[in-house]
Amino acid sequence: MTNITDWDNKKQSAGGHPHSAQKGNKRRRLGHQNAISRWNFTLLLLLCLVLGVTACSPGGNAAATAPSATSATDETTDEAENTPVETEPTPAEAVFPVTISHKYGTTVIPEAPQRVVAIGYNEQDALLALGIKPVAVRYWYGEAPFAIFPWAQDEAAGAEPEVMEMAWGELNFEAILALDPDLISGVYSGITEVEYQQLSLIAPTIAQSGDYIEFGMPWQEMTKLVGQAVGKAEEAAALVDKVEAQFAAARADNPAFAGKTIAVAYANGDGTYGFYTPEDGRGRFFTNLGFTIPDELVEIAGDSFYAHISQERLDVLDQDVIVFLGLQFLEGGRATIENDPLINQLEAMKEGRVVYVPLDCDDALQFGSVLSLEYALEGLVGLLAAATE
Predict the structure, then answer these.
(1) I need a labelling partner for 52 at 20 to 30 A (CA). Which of 206, 332, 372, 383 fits?
(2) Three-state SS for 265?
(3) CA–CA separation, 170 and 34 (whole Å)
(4) Average per-residue pLDDT in the chain?
(5) Burial group, residue 192, by CB count within 10 angstroms (0-12, 13-18, 19+)
(6) Could you tell me the domains of the chain?
(7) What is this structure's pTM?
(8) Helices (runs of H) and strands (runs of E) counted in the chain
(9) Residue 308: which H helix or E strand, with range?
(10) Each residue of 319-365: pLDDT tens digit?
(11) What distance in Å separates the CA atoms of residue 146 and residue 122, rounded to the nearest whole number?
(12) What DSSP assignment string belongs to 10-55?
């Protein structure tokens, strides 16, 4: 791949160009803190073990026991104020223990999780779709209260999870520990093996499959993995089937999509551009509709799910259709691209074979989850059909 810095990688892995929330956002937050050192983290865990707060072992093969809803306590504080949002009771408890395989090995989850912490950037959607209300989620970008976007409001049913602001590569282990989780879901988090081992000292932790590049696990498999972890594998499979049927219907209604080449692009604001590959959920959305992302683009990206290109190579974006997403992160938005003389020399631009992704659809496309994809399909299929006429 070309012209990619570590900072670029952090931005792209967190939704393109994440930005801080503005004042007035009505969501509870665990303020952003730097990750504590491994040594301090180990001392903290030893202290907690002595105090009986948690009992875990590396790799997630022995999990912290979830607190019982009926256990006695010496405290007399108001239960309604101190009991976080938990999972709904489920008959799926009969399937436990379950063993989850992932890129760092296997994780044993001994019983139905009651306190799930989602450190993946979009995993709250899969959990909410399965009836699981996480006690905490990870902030990605935007102003959605409690990091729950419009497509997940019905499933959230008033849930108010803690929102953890942790930059990519800077997990706040102390804050995660304080949440007393019995499952840490990190499938779309990009955690390293060292981070996985540290998280597993707190609670059973799941990561993405090793079959894909970082952040490249398809939404179908991610949904099923999360479903298996919470004892709802059948429900997860049914959710996947439902959304896949919607993609199939869109393909059937729009046979012109089949075989058309597409560039799933974004503007950097400095006259350069970038694109996503089929290894990324944003690129995969369009290939699932029948479009093709050319091999040339995949080769430029190499082992990454995206790449930046210089002004001299804008020609690689000149495909049957160009889609521009992430306009909300671009100063000037759509107008910046429309007023760029270089990009407008491309034939696709001259002939109007361009789709500018609207804001609401852009959020849904960025998330690429089992809940958001239906939202994205409703808003984008018509625009794509017009661009391929």
Answers:
(1) 206
(2) strand
(3) 6
(4) 83
(5) middle
(6) 19-66+79-234 (3.40.50.1980), 254-387 (3.40.50.1980)
(7) 0.79
(8) 15, 13
(9) strand 306-309
(10) 999 999 999 999 999 999 999 999 999 999 999 999 999 998 999 99
(11) 12
(12) HHHHTTSS--PPPTT----EE---PPPPHHHHHHHHHHHHHHTS--
